[in-house]
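Input structure tokens:
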């Protein structure tokens, strides 16, 4: 159940399935992220990229940005995401909270294709911490 995906930009991404104790032939070996985990991680990367870019375009001094995603999925197939929470941590000098809030909103309403797509099945919520450096 291990797979290698080559992206359009020529990069390689490993994926694997979870081990299945009942039917080992149907399970993975837990050697890489699950495909749906990569969807969630890609969404986090997409929106964090937007937030940093929007803040920098606003001439804010961003030093770090991270986002932690937690999620819930449907119990029955297709096990789509039903809830996603994104918690951003933005660090920089003199960045107003209102600018971070606006950047997150713009990402989710206009720019982040991944989160806009996932919002078709999932309730997406956000929060953030702002750290003065």
């Amino acid at each position: 159940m291990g797979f290698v995906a080559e992206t359009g930009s020529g990069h390689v991404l490993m994926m694997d399935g979870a081990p299945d104790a009942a039917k080992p032939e149907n399970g993975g070996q837990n050697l890489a992220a699950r495909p749906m985990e990569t969807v969630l991680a890609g969404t986090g990367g997409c929106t964090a990229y937007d937030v940093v870019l929007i803040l920098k375009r606003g001439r804010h001094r961003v030093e770090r940005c991270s986002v932690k995603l937690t999620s819930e999925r449907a119990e029955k197939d297709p096990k789509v995401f039903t809830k996603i929470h994104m918690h951003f941590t933005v660090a920089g000098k003199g960045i107003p909270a209102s600018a971070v809030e606006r950047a997150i909103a713009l990402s989710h309403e206009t720019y982040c294709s991944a989160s806009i797509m996932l919002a078709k099945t999932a309730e997406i919520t956000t929060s953030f911490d702002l750290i003065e450096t």
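The mean pLDDT is 96. The two ends are 45 Å apart (CA to CA).
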